[in-house]
What does this fold into?
Amino acid sequence: MTWTSIQPILIPVIVVGGLGMAFGVLLAWFAKKFAIKFDPAIEKIESVLPGVNCGACGFPGCSALAEAIVRGDAPIDSCPVGGTRTWQEIGRVLGKEVSVRETRKAVLICQGGNEVATTQAIYRGVADCRAATVYGVSFKACHYGCLGLGSCQRICPFEAIRMDETTGLPVIIGSRCTGCGRCVKECPRSVLTLLPARDLVVVACTSPDTARSVKAVCRKGCIKCQLCVKVCPVKAISFPDGKIRIDRKICTLCGLCVDKCPTGCIVRNIRNSVPAEASSSVPVPAVPVEVEEPMR
It folds into this structure.
């Protein structure tokens, strides 16, 4: 076999082999030069997080949050779903102390259900609160109350909200609510809010209207009488900007404001208690809060 006969075969083999070797060297250099250093703490923190990827922390998912926490771009207690136990676990992974803050739950601050608030029209549009708000015309006479179309129920990733068939209002299932806040962001009328997960006295009305206007549209709205302000023994209630405000740091839960409120718009929001009908010593909470066995 002569050189002339093997030349057409040998030269391509040498060229291809040389190119392969050159590309291999370049790939190895690029891999080393632009290698992403993986911090094992990210994987550990991600395993501690709930893994529901709800976005309540402000990041696309639990993996993104774990990276942000390790980088220092997000605080250890960024995940509202995980709660205190999760924050403490993350603190142990990072070797940092975590200051325990009060967990929060969603609370409905409106009592304008079907039998309480006046309805001025029949709504036949899309069953979505935001869509109904965009129309600009409220089928409920109160322009600040709950529309009852169930957007909060549908967006809740933990099935912690159900719509009451009688009142048409959302009911928060306290044992399932993680305080992620998605329902609060979804509500176009801001009748859902996050409050400390403990017994509270709540003003269940958001209307800034005058007493006459409120009485015309709702039987349980705030009429700005300020009896609650006068009766509070520790001065925990004030009336700035035409709205009742309760200082929860001062409030002793004595219940005098609840008893004196002529329309019943100030209510007890009872957490972790047995249903009111099972105990005559526990007042019936007017804010819809349902207690259920935790999910397993």
Remarks:
- DSSP finds ten helices and nine strands in the chain.
- The two ends are 78 Å apart (CA to CA).
- Confidence is low (pLDDT under 50) at residues 272-296.
